[in-house]
């Protein structure tokens, strides 16, 4: 039996960047095949070639043994290849049926197509346990369910080979487990799955074989059972990596950020943060653990001054911040800096050259240029220097922000905030979509900041990250703080219960 | 979905627009052919009339001056993510500002009166744009709708004022008395005459210099200043603006006021440079041409100057063409202009894609 997919000597360059160098890949039919590699290693490029977004400069693609040319996603779909993107391609106000039908309506009138979709959905639900309310509005569904619709879309179009790009980046641990369950049942039904991810834990949990890419080359393909996370990490980065950064015990200093009875109501009138109180001390990392959407984002934004609290007080270095002075600009001046959760929507301007994104929030600083003007040469020189310190690749300050990989974009944001000597740093999802090498780097920086006496408030949906970095951990559930633990005195099960809202009092 | 298109800068800024214009002329040629005229002759008249004579060139540059101002006006708003359709109304109100200032402050010497007139035009244009800006920023009323409504308001307001308030008592025409001589911006042929150089006389006046200076200042503002940075952040990523402590509402109002002030330049050129009185409909729809100019010039001042020249050629050459070949009416010239707008503005992506494919193919062949 010929393999589901064979890629032979694939080459692809973008200008001077050789994104794929003679890449060979064989994916066996009916297997779950993982592809790991750092950001910019060429995984996404390779999959884009397979899915017809790009055409390879040279090389051959064989599907089920037959060489084919894939020039558009239509060709890929015709060849039985389906893709689930990291960022969903769904129309939120439409129903599940309408979304699945989109692009495959089968005629000018919708009735016939709709009936067909309903029948197919029912069959898929039976075959794979992919149960979903066909008439639900997509925008009202959880992220995990939205992802199922993406998978349903691909299956509806007859996909035998399913590519998933970073599928768990947006999922809660429970949702991720459900996804893996689904992938296994797809495999049992003879489908082939290609899983692109950063997370070695997932590779180990669900794949049969794994391929590692580094700097555009395929460096190894092994049976998952014969490898280990440290081995994979080393292959990805090309050197030994610490999956857990060491940190020393340290007594925290004076309180720098005190939050008292803070409540936040959003523009739609929903209570997002309810009566939250806590303190961050100098030289301490306080982590907030919680499933995404339980008020952590709103809490960070409120402290940073992007939102106004409805009730409650914020004290910074012992002084109350009156609401008239509670805005992002003032908070920055005081020394409260903010690495936002969503770098592309909030922390950067994707359309700007990097050197302009690197002054977002600080464009008023007098040293950046004479009077009302900005000195571009200076901005470029400044960023070139920080890019070297933070190992941003490529070190090209004039390159458009959106052309950097996620990890490098995150480094640009971190550098911008850290280099301005914060007293308190708010950090949201510092390593979301960031590769292992960069994670180690970012964790080291954060711990160095803590050791230098900065108070850090860390919000992350990665429980591992929270547990590695924090000195103290708070859990949030349903807009409230449900518990507090010293990092040394807790474990995943304990935190998991608190995150699910099982509080100490209730227990 | 397809791969993102990355073109070299020269192809982006010169090649693609050039192909668009060439294609537009090709289609326009077919239109001319279909009414039984020779497109080559027509093109010759068009170029001859706009560039072939000193006088023609003067008129071309006069129109180009108008278009630079309104093009810049649209571009500044565009960088803040706003589509300012209200250039007509803002220029009309700027005209009112000029008339009020010049006819009431006639005692001032010329070197003061001219700047006062220009500033008054800018202030009135800015004020007229500030209201839709405020409504967008604070109430969320869509800027396209409000600026269109403000065009109508401006147009009826000026009719009312000219007929009932500002008209010279003895005159039957709805126009103000002439502005004082000292307030006239010198014609280009007069300015050249100071240095003993004779050039053919035309409507072209020194406002062109102001237009070019404005283009430079807009470039400096948008691409080099802190305010321009804030404007572009708001236009490109409003969430990031909030994060950065930039108030989108404040920036929207400022950008609209700057836009309105720039639209006022049209009134300066037409009224202080040429008509020397306020009259009805002096804006002649040029405010709308500004949208096409800004689109074609990709909202960049250099592009806007080039696009303004092109539209200047079309307007002046078109007038000559209609005169020389009566079969080709002024309306037909407007049709040709429309085709160019269609190709340069709306169908721009079509040629970008073609050019990009050519480039990738070439690179593949080279590799």
Q: What is the CATH topology assignment of the largest domain in chain A?
A: Rossmann fold
Q: How many distinct folded domains of chain A?
A: 3
Most extensive chain interface and residues per partner: A-B, 40 and 23 residues
| Strand segment tally of chain A | 20
CATH classification, class level of the largest domain in chain A: Alpha Beta
Strand content of chain A: 15-25%
SS content category of chain B: mainly alpha
How many distinct helices of chain B? Answer: 15
Overall number of structural domains of chain B: 2
Describe the main β-sheet of chain A briefly. Answer: 6 strands, mixed
The CATH H-level superfamily of the largest domain in chain A is P-loop containing nucleotide triphosphate hydrolases
CATH-defined architecture of the largest domain in chain B: Orthogonal Bundle
Count the E strands of chain B.
0
**From the helix content, strand content and strand pairing of chain A, which structural class follows?**
alpha/beta
Family (chain A): Belongs to the ABC transporter superfamily.
Subcellular location (chain A): Cell membrane
Pfam families (chain A): ABC_tran
GO molecular function (chain A): ATP binding; ATP hydrolysis activity
Structure characteristics:
heterodimer; A: 507 residues; alpha/beta; Rossmann fold; 3 domains; six-stranded mixed sheet; 20 strands; 25% strand; B: 367 residues; mainly alpha; ABC transporter involved in vitamin B12 uptake, BtuC; 2 domains; 15 helices
Could you walk me through the main structural features you see in this protein, from its secondary elements to its overall organization?
The complex is a heterodimer of chains A (507) and B (367). Chain A has helices spanning 43-50, 73-78, 96-101, 111-128, 143-156, 173-188, 200-206, 229-237, 296-304, 328-334, 343-347, 354-357, 376-389, 406-418, 436-451, 463-469, 492-499, and strands spanning 5-14, 17-27, 32-37, 58-63, 66-68, 81-84, 161-165, 192-196, 209-214, 217-223, 255-265, 271-281, 285-289, 311-316, 319-320, 336-339, 424-428, 455-460, 472-477, 480-486. Chain A has 507 residues and is of the alpha/beta class. Chain A folds into three domains: 5-237, Rossmann fold, CATH 3.40.50.300; 242-335 and 422-507, P-loop containing nucleotide triphosphate hydrolases (Rossmann fold), CATH 3.40.50.300; 346-421, no CATH class. In chain A, strands 6-7-8-3-9-10 form a six-stranded mixed β-sheet, sandwiched between helices. A six-stranded mixed β-sheet of chain A has the order 16-17-18-13-19-20, with helices on both faces. Chain A has a four-stranded antiparallel β-sheet with strand order 2-1-4-5, with helices on one face. In chain A, α14 packs parallel to α15 (436-451). The mean pLDDT of chain A is 89. With 367 residues, chain B is mainly α. Chain B has two domains: 1-37 and 327-367, no CATH class; 55-324, Orthogonal Bundle (ABC transporter involved in vitamin B12 uptake, BtuC), CATH 1.10.3470. The longest helix of chain B has 30 residues, at 110-139. Chain B starts with 8 loop residues before the first helix and ends with a helix. The A-B interface holds A 13-15, 48, 53-54, 57-58, 72-73, 304-306, 327-330, 332, 338, 340, 345-352, 356, 359-361, 363-364, 368-369, 372-374, 376 and B 1-3, 6, 220, 224-227, 229-230, 232-233, 236-237, 239-240, 242-245, 364, 367. Chain A: It comes from Microvirga makkahensis. Chain A: Its main location: membrane. Chain A: It is a peripheral membrane protein. Chain A: Belongs to the ABC transporter superfamily. Chain A: Residues 5-240, 257-503 form the ABC transporter domain.
């Amino acid at each position: 039996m010929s393999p589901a997919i064979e890629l032979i000597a694939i080459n692809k360059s973008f200008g001077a960047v050789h994104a794929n160098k003679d890449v060979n890949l064989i994916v066996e039919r009916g297997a779950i095949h993982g592809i790991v590699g750092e950001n910019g290693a060429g995984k996404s490029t390779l999959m884009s070639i397979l899915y017809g977004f790009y055409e390879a400069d040279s090389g051959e693609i064989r599907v089920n043994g037959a060489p084919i040319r894939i020039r558009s996603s239509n060709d890929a779909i015709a060849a039985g290849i389906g893709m689930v993107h990291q960022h969903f391609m769904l129309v939120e106000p439409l129903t599940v049926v309408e979304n699945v039908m989109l692009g495959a309506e089968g005629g000018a009138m919708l009735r016939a197509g709709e009936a067909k979709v309903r029948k197919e959905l029912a069959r898929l639900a039976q075959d794979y346990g992919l149960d979903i309310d066909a008439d639900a509005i997509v925008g009202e569904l959880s992220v995990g369910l939205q992802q199922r619709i993406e998978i349903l879309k691909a299956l509806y179009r007859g996909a035998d080979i399913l590519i998933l790009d970073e599928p768990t980046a947006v999922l809660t641990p429970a949702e991720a487990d459900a996804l893996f369950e689904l992938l296994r049942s797809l495999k049992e039904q003879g489908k082939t799955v290609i899983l692109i991810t950063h997370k070695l834990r997932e590779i180990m949990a669900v794949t049969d074989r794994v391929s590692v890419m580094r700097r555009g080359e395929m460096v190894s393909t092994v049976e998952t059972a014969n490898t280990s996370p440290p081995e994979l990490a080393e292959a990805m980065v090309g050197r030994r990596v610490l999956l857990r950064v060491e940190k020393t015990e340290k007594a925290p200093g004076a309180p720098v950020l005190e939050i008292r009875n803070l409540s936040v109501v959003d523009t739609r009138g929903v209570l997002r943060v309810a009566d939250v109180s806590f303190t961050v001390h100098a030289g301490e990392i306080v982590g907030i653990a919680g499933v995404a959407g339980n008020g952590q984002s709103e809490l960070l934004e409120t402290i940073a001054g992007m939102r106004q609290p409805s009730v409650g007080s914020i004290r910074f270095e012992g002084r109350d911040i009156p609401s008239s002075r509670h805005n992002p600009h003032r908070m920055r001046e005081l020394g409260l800096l903010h690495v936002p959760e969503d770098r592309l929507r909030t922390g950067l301007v994707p359309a700007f050259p990097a050197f302009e994104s690197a002054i977002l929030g600080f464009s008023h600083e007098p040293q950046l240029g004479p009077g009302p003007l900005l000195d571009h040469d200076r901005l470029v020189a400044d960023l070139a220097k920080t890019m070297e310190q933070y190992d941003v690749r490529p070190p090209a300050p004039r390159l458009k922000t959106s052309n950097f990989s996620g990890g490098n974009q995150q480094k640009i944001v971190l550098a911008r905030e850290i280099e301005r000597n914060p007293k308190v740093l708010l950090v949201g999802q510092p390593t979301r979509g960031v590769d292992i090498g960069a994670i180690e780097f970012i964790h080291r920086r954060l711990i160095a900041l803590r050791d230098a006496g900065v108070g850090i408030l860390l919000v992350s949906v990665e429980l591992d990250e929270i547990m590695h970095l924090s000195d103290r951990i708070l859990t949030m559930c349903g807009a409230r703080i449900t518990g507090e633990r010293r990092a040394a005195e807790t474990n995943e099960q304990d935190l998991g219960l608190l995150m699910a809202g099982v509080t100490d009092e209730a227990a | 979905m397809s791969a993102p298109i990355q073109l070299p800068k020269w192809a982006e800024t010169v090649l693609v627009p050039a192909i668009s214009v060439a294609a537009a002329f090709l289609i326009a040629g077919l239109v001319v052919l279909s009414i039984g005229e020779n497109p080559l002759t027509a093109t010759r008249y068009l170029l001859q009339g706009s560039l072939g004579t000193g006088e023609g060139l003067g008129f071309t540059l006069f129109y180009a001056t108008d278009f630079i101002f309104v093009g810049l006006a649209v571009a500044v708003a565009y960088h803040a993510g706003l589509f300012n359709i209200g250039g007509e109304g803002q220029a009309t109100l700027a005209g009112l500002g000029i008339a009020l200032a010049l006819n009431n402050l006639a005692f001032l010497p010329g070197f003061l009166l001219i700047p006062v007139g220009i500033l008054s035009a800018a202030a009135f244009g800015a004020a007229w744009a500030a209201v839709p800006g405020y409504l967008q920023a604070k109430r969320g009323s869509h800027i396209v709708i409000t600026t269109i409504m403000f065009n109508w308001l401006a147009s009826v307001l000026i009719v009312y004022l000219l007929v009932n308030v500002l008209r010279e008592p003895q005159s039957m025409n709805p126009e103000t008395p002439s502005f004082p001589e000292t307030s006239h911006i010198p014609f280009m042929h007069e300015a050249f005459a100071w240095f003993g150089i004779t050039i053919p006389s035309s409507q072209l006046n020194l406002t062109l210099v102001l237009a070019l200076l404005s283009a430079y200042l807009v470039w400096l503002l948008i691409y080099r200043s802190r305010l321009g940075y804030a404007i572009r952040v708001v236009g490109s990523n409003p969430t990031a603006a909030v994060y950065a402590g930039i108030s989108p509402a404040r920036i929207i109002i400022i950008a609209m006021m700057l836009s309105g002030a720039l639209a006022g330049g049209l009134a300066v050129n037409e009224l202080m440079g040429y008509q020397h009185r306020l009259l009805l409909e002096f804006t002649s729809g040029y405010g709308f041409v500004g949208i096409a100019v800004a689109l074609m010039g990709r909202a960049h001042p250099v592009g806007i100057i080039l696009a303004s020249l092109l539209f200047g050629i079309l307007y002046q050459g078109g007038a000559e063409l209609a005169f020389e070949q009566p079969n080709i009416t002024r309306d037909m010239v407007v049709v040709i202009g429309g085709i160019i707008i269609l190709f340069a503005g709306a169908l721009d992506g079509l040629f970008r894609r073609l050019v990009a494919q050519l480039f990738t193919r070439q690179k593949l062949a080279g590799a």
